[in-house]
Design brief:
alpha/beta, 6-stranded parallel sheet, two-stranded parallel ribbon, 11 helices, globular
């Protein structure tokens, strides 16, 4: 993930502490918040790495079997393939069948870039209709959708964004990732856009990346969290410290009424990614009383020579 990427020498200089919750969240949880039984899913962004064979996937797993193997280890996938093209429903149905062995598994498809990055959001009705017709073939395996706006999509396009979101079908949850710095640097604009999300029952993606601490905005327009955790490949200790901070915050949200969580781990070191995802699962189970299934890792035999 290039968004928020910094040079390795910059990492020790960055304050990774999570900002306090904004007052905005009080209205989301209500005046009398109460703990909820949290529905939580934790997954990775990588899934097709050969390095996982014999470690995350059983020895001998073929490339064509990676999805089935991934779905047995994790409960959700941030599906970036849908960003690059709109697939026929027949293809989506086949993908659905490939993860059928895990009854809890959910796909979280990213909106097509033809919708989010190429065209005006006011002119994407036909594209959006085709996208929804495609991904609805996931059926019960469909999780929330993920609308990632470009780094250049700023507040001057607020009306365009609002128009688009109002047209979306209400049956499937949608989370929006804002990236332009002005959404976060100007408080009035920040309150305006998140209030609009709340009025339309749209969630906000929180992206925790080293070089964009403003994107760790902590606003929850709906009682659900979609977190993209971007780790530091050369500083594994800090990843686990940051994970602990997130678990504490998610626990606090649960006590206030958080209903669902989707958390995706991004790491350039592919074997570190599933291990950090497993750590999140362990700690969330321990601290929040959840029962998420942990991945089972395989031990590669030691080389004799």
């Amino acid at each position: 993930m290039e968004f928020g990427k910094v040079q390795p020498q910059e990492i020790p200089l960055i304050d990774f502490s999570l900002p306090p919750d904004p007052d905005f969240n009080r209205a989301t949880f209500g005046n009398n918040p109460s703990p909820q039984k949290l529905k939580a899913h934790v997954g990775c962004v990588t899934w097709g790495s050969k390095d996982w064979v014999g470690e995350v996937y059983p020895p001998g797993t073929k490339d064509a079997q990676f999805w089935e193997a991934y779905a047995k280890q994790f409960s959700c996938m941030e599906l970036n393939a849908t960003f690059y093209q709109v697939y026929p429903t027949e293809t989506i149905a086949k993908w659905k069948e490939r993860v059928a062995a895990n009854p809890d598994f959910l796909f979280c498809p990213k909106f097509s870039k033809q919708i989010s990055h190429v065209s005006s959001l006011k002119t994407t009705y036909d594209l959006t209709t085709a996208f929804y017709e495609s991904i609805l073939a996931f059926g019960e395996k469909l999780g929330p959708l993920f609308l990632q706006l470009s780094d250049y999509f700023g507040p001057e396009r607020f009306a365009e964004l609002e128009f688009c979101l109002k047209q979306l079908p209400k049956e499937v949850p949608v989370f929006v990732e804002l990236r332009h710095e002005r959404w976060f640097s100007e408080k009035q604009l920040q309150e305006k856009v998140f209030s609009m999300f709340r009025s339309l029952n749209i969630g906000a993606v929180i992206t925790d990346a080293a070089g964009r601490r403003d994107a760790v905005h902590m606003h929850l327009p709906v009682p659900a969290a979609f977190i993209r955790f971007v780790g530091n490949s050369l500083f594994p200790e800090s990843n686990y410290q940051r994970a602990d901070d997130w678990v504490k915050r998610i626990k606090a949200w649960q006590q206030q009424g958080l209903q669902s969580l989707f958390l995706f781990v991004h790491l350039q070191q592919t074997l570190a990614e599933p291990k950090l995802a497993d750590y999140f699962i362990q700690q969330l189970n321990l601290e929040l009383g959840l029962e998420m299934k942990r991945p089972q890792f395989f031990q590669k035999p030691l080389a004799l020579f």
